[in-house]
Amino acid sequence: MINESTHIANQKLPLQGAGGLVVLGAGESGVGAAYLAQQQGYDVFVSDFGAIATDYKKQLQDWKIPFEEKQHTEEKILSAVEVIKSPGIPEKAPIVKKLKEKGIPVISEIEFAGRYTNAKIIGVTGSNGKTTTTSLTYHILKSAGLNVGLAGNIGKSFAYQVATEKYDYYVLELSSFMLDDMYEFKVDIAILLNITPDHLDRYDYKMDNYVASKFRVTQNQTANDYFIFCADDPETIKGMQSREFTAQMLPFSIEKTIETGAYLDNDNIVINIHQQHFQMSITELALQGKHNVYNSMASGIVAKVLELRNETIRESMGDFKNIEHRLESVGKISGISFINDSKATNVNSTWYALESMTSDVILIMGGVDKGNDYTMLNELVRQKVKAIVCLGRDNDRIHKAFEHDVDTIIDTVSAEQAVQAAYHMATKGDTVLLSPACASFDLFKNYEDRGNQFKQAVKEL
């Protein structure tokens, strides 16, 4: 990804004593970054304002990396020459503001790790479908026999893998929070799936700020790189009008014919890139539903850019198993289907989930509202939802948004309560769908914890 001279120029010399490298946040990305920094000869210190999970604490102790938890010692942090910030820490955090005031560079783990690998980077961003598309792309590349790693917002941290593996390719799921702290990092093949309002609380409730964050995936690209984007997504197209791109453009669409890129011809995905041609019926795709046609197109374009065999792509797209917590079938009880879509942390994800439902739905939703606009769900809720079970501490906005669309909206404060309530309201042939449209932090550690508690509650019915 980076030629050798750049690689050496970017590589910082080991820093001893005061003024080393500080890592803020000791989750997956922070601990991985600390390990890579130590391996590269830095004097590292890790600081977490909250409690550090036992597993991560043990890793830091085993590696003899100094750390603190439940506090930020400003004297130590503000003497750093560079700070790696975990994506969950907002710019508004007091310690981050102080670092910026002092002019101390604050970067992401992805930015840092990128200095120490020459692998080709495939970076996937978008408001919805990132994890699915990243996982599918990885699956296709791995099935084709490429030496490929999977990282970013998914799996083991990029920094840890750079420290311990020697991959030729990485497929990275890149959230807007990660992109915000990336400056020199370059993505060789960038995918922007879509842009819909999400995390606006982190962007001063300004859509333009969020859009700008997403387009950072294309920064530093050259004429040898590729930018894959959805030609049907209005915010993407609008955002492109005021920006210039150096990379080769590869759009995908299900609404119109695309000469170089991907499109839908009747029920066939067609991909054409530089004499590379691929075609596959959407009925053969492992992932069904309109949104997954888009996801499959994006992954398929990457495969053709890398000139993988059509047979491999077809097989991989046909046998891919979807990720946990994304429209995951949990099973049937008394003829009622239970689906775990806990990863749907924004309104658009819930829209996709409802759109793919073919039976009547009892919808479990709610949590930490990130300034959500629920109006896009009203029509689908009227058509498909029999009742809403709120799972969250503050459900007022959900009640107000849907009081005219469904007869029953009830409040619960645990996965067990929500599942019990939904089960009693459902009849044979219905689907109980957990698709929250909200973050999980009011009642759960994260969306995985929420999904796992939902699955456990279903098992106990």
What does this structure look like?
This protein has 461 residues and is an alpha/beta fold. The protein has three domains: 17-107, Rossmann fold, CATH 3.40.50.720; 113-319, UDP-N-acetylmuramoyl-L-alanine:D-glutamate ligase, CATH 3.40.1190; 328-459, Protein-Tyrosine Phosphatase, Chain A (Alpha-Beta Complex). Helices cover 35% and strands 21% of the residues. The protein is built from 18 helices and 20 strands. The strands form three sheets. A nine-stranded mixed beta sheet has the order 7-8-6-9-10-11-12-13-14, with helices on one face. Strands 15-16-20-17-18-19 form a six-stranded mixed beta sheet, with helices on both faces. A five-stranded parallel beta sheet has the order 3-2-1-4-5. Strand 18 (385-391), helix 16 and strand 19 (408-412) form a beta-alpha-beta unit. The longest helix has 16 residues, at 290-305. Mean pLDDT is 91; it is low at 1-18. It catalyses: UDP-N-acetyl-alpha-D-muramoyl-L-alanine + D-glutamate + ATP = UDP-N-acetyl-alpha-D-muramoyl-L-alanyl-D-glutamate + ADP + phosphate + H(+). ATP binds at residues 126-132. Cell wall formation. Catalyzes the addition of glutamate to the nucleotide precursor UDP-N-acetylmuramoyl-L-alanine (UMA). It comes from Mucilaginibacter mallensis.
CATH topology of the largest domain: UDP-N-acetylmuramoyl-L-alanine:D-glutamate ligase
Q: If you compute it from the alpha carbons, what radius of gyration comes out, rounded to the nearest whole angstrom?
A: 23 Å
Question: How confident is the prediction overall: mean pLDDT?
Answer: 91
CATH superfamily descriptor of the largest domain:
Mur-like, catalytic domain
Tell me how many strands there are: 20
Helix fraction bin? 25-40%
Low-confidence stretches: 1-18
What's the story with the biggest beta sheet? Answer: 9 strands, mixed
Examine the secondary-structure arrangement and name the CATH architecture of the largest domain: 3-Layer(aba) Sandwich
Structural class: alpha/beta
Our estimate of the beta-strand percent is 15-25%
CATH class of the largest domain: Alpha Beta
How many domains? Answer: 3
Counted by DSSP, the helix tally is 18
How do the strands line up in the largest sheet?
7-8-6-9-10-11-12-13-14
Shape: globular
Give the termini distance in whole angstroms: 51 Å
Organism: Mucilaginibacter mallensis
GO molecular function: ATP binding; UDP-N-acetylmuramoylalanine-D-glutamate ligase activity
Pfam families: Mur_ligase_C (PF02875), Mur_ligase_M (PF08245), MurD-like_N (PF21799)
GO cellular component, one term: cytoplasm
